[in-house]
Amino acid sequence: MQIVTMSVVKETILLLNDGRIGNFNQVKALTQNLEQKYNIIEKKITFSFFIFLPNFINLFFNTGVNHKKLTRNVTKANFILSSGRRSALAAVIIKKKIKDAQIIQLMRPELKAKYFSFIATPKHDNYKFADYEMLLAPNLISAEALSKAAKKWPKSAKPLKIIAIIIGGDTKNNKINHNKIQTFCAKIHELQQKYKLKLIIVTSRRTPLSFADELERHFSKNTDFFFWHKINQKNNPYLSILAIADYFLVTADSVSMISDCLATAKPTIIYKSGFGELKHQKIINNLIKNNYIFSMEQVLKEENLNIKAKKLVEAHNLQLAISKKLRF
Questions:
Q1: Tell me, what's the pLDDT at 51?
Q2: Mean pLDDT in residue range 22-42
Q3: Quick one: DSSP state of residue 74?
Q4: Model confidence pTM above 0.90
Q5: Across-strand partners of 185?
Q6: Which of 76, 104, 250, 266 has a 20 to 30 A CA-CA distance from 239?
Q7: According to DSSP H, which parts of the chain are helical?
Q8: Residues 268-291 pLDDT 10s
C-alpha cells in the first residue's frame, strides 16, 4: 500500500528593508519563531531623492521609489511587514499589485490608515488609528541567543555583581558636552562604590570620541572595569555583555538598547540627566510609571541594590495583538 503525503503550502510574509537597521530589525523581530509557519522573504527598497517629500505626495505622483523595481519578482504575499514612514509607502505600492496582501505597519505610516490592516505605534505618539500601542520597539533578543553569547565571555575570578553601562550620545537636538560627561562619570563612580559592582561600559556609534576618551581616563585605573567602544565593530561583545550582566544602566537616549535590556528580564536603571530629547523622556516616563525601569536618582537613594526586574518582550506582545485582529 502506497502512502501519499500531502505537503502543506506555506503562506508568505514579505519583510520590507528600507536600509535603516533599526526599522528592519523591528519587522525581523516580529517574525521570530514563525519560520515553520511562513515563507519569510526580505525585499530591499531603493528610494529616490523625492522620498523626502510627504508620503501622500509621493503616492499621488508615483515618486519616492521606483515602482517597477520595487514590484519586480514580487508575485505573492499574504502579509507585508513594514516599519517607518518610508517603507509604509513601499508597502502600499506593493499592495496595489498584490491586492489580497495585508499590511502590518510599525510606526506612523504618514498615509491614511485605510491602506493598512494593522498599525502599531509607540504609546507616546498618541496615534488615534493605532491597533496596538508599543511601550518599546520589538527587538531580536532571545533566551537562546543570550545563552550562546554567555559562553563566549570568560568568567571573572571576583564574585562581584556586574553592571553593564550602555551609553548612547548625541541626538539631533541634544549634544553631550564636557560638563554632562563629568557629571555622568561621577554618578557611575558613586553607584559602583555604594554597591560594590564590576563595571562593563559599552558605547555606541553616536557616542562622541571625547566622551569615550573621558570614560577611559576616568576609569582606567579601576581594577573592576571593562570598556568597549562600539565604533570598533570587530568581535562585537554586545550580546555577551547583555548575557552576563546582573544589572544595566542605560542613558535615556538609547531607546533600542533599553528594549534589549528589558528583554533579558534583568533590572534596568536609566540615567536621564542631560541625555535624550522630549520624545525619549516620554518613553522613559511611561516605562518608569509601569515599573519596568528605575531612575538613577531612585536607585542611589536605596540602602541596597534590591530592585526587581520586570520582563518586557514587545515582539511577543505584538504578535498576540496582531493574531487577535488578523489570521497571523
A1: 94
A2: 91
A3: -
A4: no
A5: none
A6: 104
A7: 21-30, 55-61, 67-71, 85-97, 143-150, 178-195, 209-219, 238-244, 255-263, 278-289, 296-300, 314-325
A8: 999 988 787 778 888 888 899 889
The values of phi and psi at residue 106, to 5°, are -105, 135
Report the pLDDT value the prediction gives residue 235, as an integer from 0 to 100.
73
Q: Which domains does the chain possess?
A: 11-135+317-325 (3.40.50), 143-300 (3.40.50.2000)
- pLDDT band of 129, cuts 50, 70, 90: very high
What integer is the mean pLDDT of 116-142?
93
- CA separation (Å) from 43 to 17, 120, 185, 323? 6, 21, 43, 23
Query: Is the dihedral angle over the CA atoms 111, 113, 117, 121 positive or is it negative?
Result: positive
pLDDT score, position 282: 86
Task: Give the Cα separation of 131 and 237 in Å (integer).
Answer: 36
pLDDT, average across residues 124-131:
93
pLDDT of residue 231: 55
Contacts for 125-131 with beta carbons within 8 Å, 24 or more apart? 131/321, 131/322, 131/325
CB-based contact 242:146 (threshold 8 Å): yes
Residue 65: all three cell numbers together: 521609489
For the chain, the straight-line distance linking the first and the last C-alpha, in angstroms and rounded, comes to 38
Average pLDDT taken over every residue of the chain: 88
Its sign, for the CA torsion 148, 249, 139, 170, is negative
268 close to 262: Cβ distance less than 8 angstroms: yes
Cα gap 90→130, rounded to integer Å: 19
Distance between CA atoms of residues 250 and 153, nearest Å: 21
pLDDT score for 232: 57
Task: For residue 295, give the H/E element and its range.
Answer: strand 294-295
pLDDT at 204: 84
